[in-house]
Design goal:
six-stranded mixed sheet; 14 helices
């Protein structure tokens, strides 16, 4: 069956998820589900999709041997056990069941893929003793493949190098359910500090992205993540950045009242089923107005845009997230992230 994008464009699809056309055009590739003949049951079918919802809607039609899908389920299992979150564990099982993924595929040795033997100690450790956060992620720990894919290879001095220092970048590592964060000096100065991100994740009352994205923009972030997951059909694929033409409003936690219009560069590097790095950069759009309260203190007089011009235009294809369907379904996944 053709994918949704090819069906909408009325072009031939190679029927592989993701298909060659969607990969070439940086489209989110999901299988087209025909509703022909549903008649009065159409509304009921829509309601069922909304209940399953969010990220499972975007990736739930991938094949059970899709590496990115297995990574997602396995990550949720690890996070759920550390957080003692039965809801998240149930949702991981729901996606696995919908996609035909067996428990053995996720939990046990599978060819050259290591099983989740680290879960033994997690199951017997009380919630008050669970470790959910690690120490501060350092620049030297970021994989070279991720730096290359995101235009950061020239940063020989790490976060002190202007190649990255003046860009709004934050990176999250998840390893066996433990999260670690990195923020660039510009992000720390203008958007949100590392300490606040740590505190927000530890408290677990809202997702980290809610600190600096408006509620109306959270769904675009989620869709960008779903697109990145879909790109990893098999193990050991190099990361591939996508610049999202998403018209995001980037808030700031430092007191500025005006949000900045940005595009988002997203890149997911899956090291193995229990270890990944996600790179996110916010790049000001050409027609933005920089609030004076978040202009760089080091910018020359009369050049308040200086701190916002250093982000590299990587020549990436623009993925227009405003043309996606089923935005309301993403409420489900945001509840999972919380």
């Amino acid at each position: 069956m053709a994918c949704r994008e090819c069906h909408t464009a009325k072009v031939k699809c190679d029927k592989v998820i993701p298909c060659a056309r969607c990969v070439r055009l940086s489209k989110v590739c999901v299988r087209h589900e025909s509703r022909q003949g549903q008649g009065r049951n159409k509304k009921r079918a829509r309601t069922k999709i909304s209940e399953d919802a969010a990220l499972s809607t975007e990736v739930g039609t991938l094949k059970p041997n899709h590496y990115g899908l297995q990574y997602l389920v396995r990550s949720w299992v690890s996070l759920a056990l550390r957080r003692r979150n039965f809801g998240l564990l149930a949702r991981a099982g729901m996606i696995a069941d919908r996609s035909g993924i067996s428990m053995d595929q996720i939990l046990c040795e599978n060819g050259n893929l290591r099983g989740m033997d680290f879960l033994y100690s997690l199951l017997l450790t009380p919630a008050t003793q669970q470790v959910v956060l690690g120490n501060r992620l350092s620049w030297s720990e970021i994989p070279q493949s991720l730096l290359m894919a995101t235009g950061c290879m020239g940063a020989t001095d790490g976060l002190a190098d202007p190649v990255v220092a003046d860009r709004w970048i934050w990176i999250r590592e998840i390893r066996q359910g433990i999260s670690r964060y990195l923020v660039t000096p510009a992000f720390e100065r203008d958007v949100a500090g590392w300490d606040l991100i740590q505190q927000t994740y530890q408290e677990n009352k809202k997702s980290v992205v809610e600190l600096f994205l408006a509620p109306s923009d959270i769904s675009k972030h989620t869709k960008a993540l779903a697109h990145q997951i879909s790109l990893h059909a098999t193990p050991d694929l190099p990361p591939k950045s996508s610049r999202m033409k998403s018209k995001l409003k980037l808030k700031n936690t430092k007191g500025a009242s005006t949000a900045v219009d940005v595009d988002q560069v997203f890149c997911l590097n899956i090291m193995n089923l229990d270890h990944d790095f996600s790179f996110q950069e916010y790049m000001p759009r050409g027609d933005h107005t920089v609030p004076s309260t978040i202009a760089s203190s080091s910018a020359p007089a009369g050049d308040t845009d200086a701190a916002f011009k250093s982000g590299l235009d990587l020549g990436l294809p623009l993925l227009d997230l405003d043309n996606f369907d089923d935005d309301s379904d993403l409420d489900f996944f945001m509840n999972v992230l919380k």
